[in-house]
Amino acid sequence: MDILGIDIGFGFTKATNGRDTLIYKSVFGEAKELQFQEQILAGSAAQEHLQIEVDGASFFVGELAERQSDVRFFTLDQDQFVTQFAKTLALAAAARLAGSHIPVNLVTGLPIGHYRRHKNDLAKILQGNHAIALIDENGQRQEKTININKVRVIPQPFGSLFNLMLNDLGELGDKRLVHEKIGVIDVGFRTSDYTVSDKMRYSERGSRTTDSGISRAFNVIAGKIREKSGVNVELYRLYNAVETGSIKIRGQEYELTNLVDQVFKQLANTVASEVDRLWADDWDIDAIVITGGGGAVLAKYLQPLIHGQLLQSDVMLEDSRLNNVAGYWKFGKHLWERGLGAVVAS
């Protein structure tokens, strides 16, 4: 039996089997034959080739789709994401990380605000036998049957909690967290999720999903770029521009540093205000965790605005995008190898 954690996010899909980790943009597109795939010069960055055939259609996934597909698929709509995107994005990861015909138990997550509505649909979409093919850069096919035996869908920010609470054997690691009240701020691409674990019990009152994800800032940046250049830059193509502070369009470079700083400060203020309102009655929180890819981006703006002790832990990964998926995998170990039952009821 393989245990997989897969975090199917609006911005990136992350996955791990405890040994290997994958991360790629949550975009896919129609595959086509590439006439030339060799590196133009030695030393240039190789293109990650992630191509999957599922349900009779062949797709490029992640940056390969961004670079090569004429028709690309990307959405920020939750209903559409679950029904039309989740299966392809998840199976692309499972095809790389799981063996053929080997039973797979899978843990994944949904934003808290969409959990109740979509958890059964998502589990149904992912569970079962999936005949797929992986196609490499030379066009060689590897046909596989991914047998997803069990699917456990949990509220998304629980992943970071489980990453803190559990070790790689699925056992309780940091016993201190069992007795404390922990708040989690999970800033993703489309949403921000807030939750409270009170002595390992879920607090409905302290949990909510809002639209204050990084895409809100990216929309403002894309709008300003469109005003100056006349080009509508897709949100998933802004990561590098935001990181470097500039973007070059048709030979002209546009400086973004001041704009990025301004919109991220505004977004951090929004997130901090949401935290203050949501946790107004939870003044007894012992520590607060900031996680998610958006949490890492906003951290320097957000930390001074948070009223409370921020939890620092060696368990939190350097790439914050992976904290939830690492916790999903540990929770899977806890459920299906340790046989200890759920750490926190969902």
Please outline the helices and strands:
Elements: E1 2-8, E2 12-16, E3 21-25, E4 28-30, E5 51-54, E6 57-61, H1 63-68, E7 72-73, H2 78-97, E8 103-110, H3 112-126, E9 128-135, E10 141-155, H4 158-165, E11 181-187, E12 192-198, E13 201-210, H5 214-229, H6 239-244, E14 246-249, E15 252-255, H7 257-278, E16 287-291, H8 293-302, H9 323-338
Parallel strand pairs: 1-8, 8-10, 11-16
Antiparallel strand pairs: 1-2, 2-3, 4-6, 4-7, 5-6, 5-9, 9-10, 11-12, 12-13, 14-15
Helix pairs in contact: 2-3, 4-9, 5-7, 7-8
Distance between the termini: 24 Å
Major sheet attributes: 10 strands, mixed
The tally of helices reads 9
* Lateral strand order in the biggest sheet: 3-2-1-8-10-9-5-6-4-7
Order of helices and strands: EEEEEEHEHEHEEHEEEHHEEHEHH
Shape label: flat
How would you describe this structure in keywords?
346 residues; alpha+beta; Nucleotidyltransferase, domain 5; 2 domains; ten-stranded mixed sheet; four-stranded mixed sheet; 9 helices; 29% strand
Concise structural overview:
With 346 residues, the protein is α+β, with helices and mostly antiparallel strands. The chain has helices at 63-68, 78-97, 112-126, 158-165, 214-229, 239-244, 257-278, 293-302, 323-338, and strands at 2-8, 12-16, 21-25, 28-30, 51-54, 57-61, 72-73, 103-110, 128-135, 141-155, 181-187, 192-198, 201-210, 246-249, 252-255, 287-291.
